[in-house]
UniProtKB/TrEMBL annotation:
Pfam families found in the cross-reference section: PcRGLX_1st, PcRGLX_2nd, PcRGLX_3rd
Domain of life: Bacteria
Ranges of residues in domain PcRGLX/YetA-like N-terminal RIFT barrel: 48-126
Signal peptide positions on this chain: 1-28
Annotated region (Disordered), positions in chain: 221-240, 701-720
PROSITE patterns: TAT
Name of the protein this chain belongs to: Tat pathway signal sequence domain protein
Amino acid sequence: MSSLTRREFVQKTTLVAAVAQMATSLRAADAPATSAAAGAPASANPDALRWLEGQTPALLPGTSWGRSWPRGQHGRDTAFALQTADGTAVPVQSWPLATWPDGSLKWTAHAIPANAPAAAEYRLAAGTPAAPAQPVTVVESSDTLTVDTGVIRAVLGRKGAALIRSIMRAGTEVAREGRLVCRLENRHEPGVTRTEAFTGEISAVTVEQAGPVRAVVKIEGKHRADKAGPSTSPGQSASRPDWLPFTVRLYFHAGGDMVRLMHTILFDGDASKDFISGLGVSLTVPLRGELHDRHVRFGGPEDGVFGEAVRGITGLRRNPGPEACTAQVAGRATPPVSAWRPGVADKLQYVPAYDDWSLIQSTCDGFEIRKRTKEGHTWLEAARGQRAGGLGYVGTPQGGVAFGLRNFWQSYPAQLDVRGATGEEAEVTVWMWAPGADAMDLRPYHDGMGMDTYDKQYNGGLDITYEDYEPGFNSPEGVGRTSEVHLWCLAATPARETHAAMQRVLQTPPLLASSPQWLHRCGVFGDLWSPESRATPARTAVAQRLDDLFNFYVGQQDQRRWYGFWNYGDVMHTYDPDRHEWRYDIGGFAWDNSELSTDLWLWLYYLSTGRADVFRFAEAMTRHTGEVDVHHLGRFAPLGSRHNVQHWGCSAKQLRISTAINRRYYYYLTGDERVGDLLREQVEAGRALLKFPPGRKLAFANEQGDQSRGTPNAPDSVGASMGTDWGSLAGAWLTEWERTGSAKMRDRLLASMKTLGAQPKGLFSTGLILNVETGAFEITKSEKISVSHLNAVFGLVEICAELIQLLDVPEFRQVWLDYCELYNAGAEAQKARLGDSARNVGLPQGHSRLTAYAAKQKGDAALAARAWKEFSRNWRGQQDVLTPLPVQTVRGPAVLRPVDEARGVSTNDTAQWGLAAIQCLALVGEHQPAG
């Protein structure tokens, strides 16, 4: 199978667009019509694309999204046209994300320009795309890249420290010297702390897209020590020449004045000695005009805006007049000083002008705005609040820059700075880690407590606190963090209403989304979900419980303050009812780190409901679990870390956390390039198992020795569990095959499926050895059976459904159906089919979806009834009555502040119950009991 590359696809659609630029109206008429009437209500037109948040955005800087297609509908070279419901052509750029096995398009991505025709819904179909009135272009030279959107022109560097050398608008420079900055507290010498400054240094630049609607430039490098940076020990050299690898992507849209910047860093320091005290993106903004016509803005909660001038003229003893005061407050140019009331203009030098401004979000519950006249003088408290929106501005009526950080308060400590506002140019910095806060401390939270042997770790720590500790394994080496920065290059100081609208874009970037009905019709993600239905009381009860569980976790995130730079997006694992607190400080019971597929529950719930709040919650989790919970460089790369008090603290470095299965949903729904990087990172992750066999301590405890490493005779072979290891690898191989058409990935999948199908006890076989290069398993000689309740709870169910859908391997289909049918069947049925009964068959309620899958595939009504019976019993075997979630509010003095708790709710159970509910309804919903 071959596949058109994205560059070829974009070039093809670009050429078509250019040829047809003068025929927009004809293109609109020629595009194939959908079956739904234009302008029909949402429920009548499930094929339409609609804004995720349900409202047409008041401000559109350009956007991109993913779209699924039924198998066989569109060939690889199909071009696409976009229209509003009333037939207005909308410029669009398209590129492929994935193909079906027959080579037809499965997923595509699309982008529209800034200020595209506004509509509640759009129609995408095969056709000639409309070209933008102001196409974005990229011109490359040996030293620079020039990106022109038709409104702004950005010159980007290929080397050096300036990622953005300059940005022009209407012939006037509005920004220059855009660079990455880092401050480091160097504690390498005992008792000595030196503050060192680093600036990002470019090592590679790649143009990933070059228009006509969207341009994407990827910049990679490391932070390099400044020759003259802040230091408590002048004259001493930096602790290292460079460190902290970064990847930055800059996004430009045709007709747009906003640059979107996706900023990723990987920690490669020594956690005991290297403490980041500031991490940000900085740029220089030229300032023109009088100090009283220079404006600073900061966004507060909701639509609140703090706005002042560098030199204020309101509130003075001598008033310059209402026209001047009103203009300054609004951000407009004031009348000439000669038109002011007498006694003001000639005394302006005695009115303080404020050079430096800061908004510091030190916690998720509080921010402060400060200003000072100059360095060496005190800061004034200008304003305080709880949760700032994250957008700032500095400029004049002749132009300026708005700068902001998405998830600003959620990812505290964050900071927005303006420095030098009284000079010819100001420096603005978006700090992802605020220098006004304590330095970042990534050291382990305990000293190991004597757990220096496998025996102490396995039979000691793991047994009492559920923490899998091992010396040196609780290192943050290689963990990542991605932040999103928006830069608006403006022709004038924005009105307060405009500032508030830009902040809404920053907080929830506009995204077009497909309906659950369309996605389900396309048959994507294994047909394991279906659009939510409340057609019967029984379905309504399940749907309501799904709502209750999700809403409960949203509330817990806020009440328990699951926020912060390294934490936002994750949830806690287990609750402690005695303290009325989640077990944030107890070993393996703290941060969830995707345990039992929390990510998958949220994504399937979104697919079923189309709810924007579910998407945003799942989006934040995907960003977190794909970056923070995974080692992207160093000795543990590219494995993830099991649940722990610290996200990277567990010694179980496993594929089940780094798995591509958890990221596929977001990637295909958005086309996000950074998540695409994470997916590709996992393609060869199986080789990491040769260094860190997941079962090494279990083998020790069972006195089996370590049999799971490669040997000289079989260097690519490793012991692999079916679910926590192979399922994750299969997810990565499948994704890479879909994205590229790689025959190597397809052949690995086929080899795995065929050799699993040939095992003597099928997927109940024990001692499976996988060749990570070929994908083939050795055929075990053991007649014993082995099963784990963890096999099918980390994406194996979901990926097997897709494999069976895509690849015709009858023997694999049979052994998977056997596994699904027999897991919950009971000892007698297992013994009759396998010759022995399985042990460790926990989580029967979660596994009801396996029974449901077998029932659906076999058309077995009795098996379907059994699935619902299994679903109706909780993990204790008790009847699970779908009454309202037992939430109660606990107040002081039992707790610090009022909180809601639902005793008995754990994230493991929630994720597995949610997946079972969604999949049982999709697979055997017609067999659901009425009561």
